[in-house]
Design goal:
The protein is mainly alpha-helical. Helices cover 84% and strands 0% of the residues.
């Protein structure tokens, strides 16, 4: 049983790396896309926003369909769709063809999170479940990190078409491996402990607006940086795309550290206080990045602080929500789904808004606006702390 569970964990983790890496492959090449296809930054924003929107619409559909079906086959179908979409970039000629490929790519990526995460949760229990979730989550960041590290250099060496062929080979190999190692597994019925009778009073209760706002700000801020920072660094610091992507890769690495490190800090500092501090640090570091981005070294330092602090808000928000729900006797499954949707919606809306603002005002205004949003997050967290303190008395 243990070897089988480990095999599931390794394959799902590889799927996560392939899925997330493929999703951000085009983002890592946005500075090249602007020149190669003669599109605007606003059109980049449209591509980013519609990509996230596809995930918002299709992930729940896939999650509903996947119950009781072979997760290996479903994961392979998702990666196969990604493979076809990556190949389709080879034939891109302009904005509309790029947009079509991205929509198809995001359709394929909608399979992983509902199927892969569910497969892990049904293969492990207790402390091993938490470790396994952390392990596969880290692989998602590894996939994005690898793409940002190698895609631009690969493009400069072999050109546009060969770059996407190389990544298509990677995704195709993942399809074959998934079908081989996860063949014949079947998802159990949903393990949600809520029954219609027990959830009846809970479905009428909504989570506080603070959590939705926090999810929106965190998801949107992270998406803006991941999709537009290399463009910004190219124009402000006059870096080529490989150099800019190296800095973004460091941002991703520190984001992973931020998500991991905060778990230990909550033993000494209350979760809601850490959340407020994280947003304050994020706001200041994003503002500093916006002002100092003309210097590559200072831009790197400020972006590292941004990655660490923004990413820290993700687990802190989930932990604080879990604590709040426990205090009122409400179960967390549906509420966590709302939080996840809030992050993706924030990424979609702020991605579009950032493209528009960058095109018609400037990239500085776009990143400055994100800094203001992070500041709003910190103020909201302070009000939330005061509200919880009042409840305690």
């Amino acid at each position: 049983m243990t070897s089988t569970s480990n095999r599931v964990l390794y394959v799902v983790s590889l799927n996560h790396a392939t899925n997330d890496g493929s999703v951000y492959l085009l983002s890592s090449l946005f500075p090249i896309v602007l020149a190669l296809f003669n599109i605007s930054v606003f059109q980049v924003g449209i591509i980013v926003a519609l990509g996230y929107l596809v995930n918002i619409l299709f992930q729940p559909v896939v999650g509903h369909y996947s119950e009781g079906r072979d997760p290996g086959r479903l994961l392979a179908i998702g990666i196969a769709i990604i493979t076809v979409s990556v190949v389709s970039f080879v034939f891109a000629t302009g904005f509309l063809s790029l947009l079509t490929s991205v929509i198809f790519l995001r359709l394929g990526s909608s399979f992983f999170h509902p199927v892969g995460i569910s497969t892990i949760s049904k293969s492990y229990g207790g402390p091993r479940l938490q470790k396994s979730m952390g392990f596969q989550s880290a692989f998602g960041n590894v996939g994005v990190l690898l793409v940002f590290l190698i895609s631009a250099s690969l493009y400069l060496e072999v050109g546009w078409r060969a770059t996407f062929v190389v990544f298509a080979v990677w995704t195709l190999a993942d399809v074959i491996l998934t079908l081989t190692l996860l063949r014949g597994r079947h998802s159990a019925a949903s393990d949600d402990p809520q029954t219609p009778s027990s959830s009846k009073p809970q479905t009428k209760r909504t989570i506080p607006v603070f959590f939705v706002l926090a999810a929106f700000i965190s998801g949107g801020s992270y998406a803006v940086i991941l999709n537009f920072a290399n463009i910004f660094l190219g124009t402000r610091a006059h870096l080529d795309v490989s150099q800019a992507n190296l800095i973004v890769s460091a941002f991703i690495a520190f984001a992973s550290l931020g998500a991991i490190a905060t778990g230990g800090w909550t033993r000494f500092v209350p979760t809601n206080v850490l959340l407020a501090i994280s947003y304050i640090v994020a706001s200041g570091s994003i503002a500093a990045f916006t002002l100092l981005s003309g210097n590559a070294i200072l831009a790197t330092i400020t972006l590292l602080a941004t990655g660490f602090s923004i990413s820290a808000t993700y687990p802190l928000t989930y932990t604080e929500l879990s604590r709040y729900l426990g205090s009122i006797g409400q179960q967390s499954g549906r509420s966590f789904g709302v939080l996840s949707s809030g992050q993706t919606i924030g990424a979609s809306i702020l991605g579009l808004a950032s493209g528009y603002v960058s095109q018609f005002l400037s990239l500085e205004v776009s990143f400055g606006s994100v800094a203001i949003l992070a500041l709003i997050g910190s103020v909201s967290a302070v009000f939330w702390i005061k509200n919880m303190n009042r409840r305690a008395y």
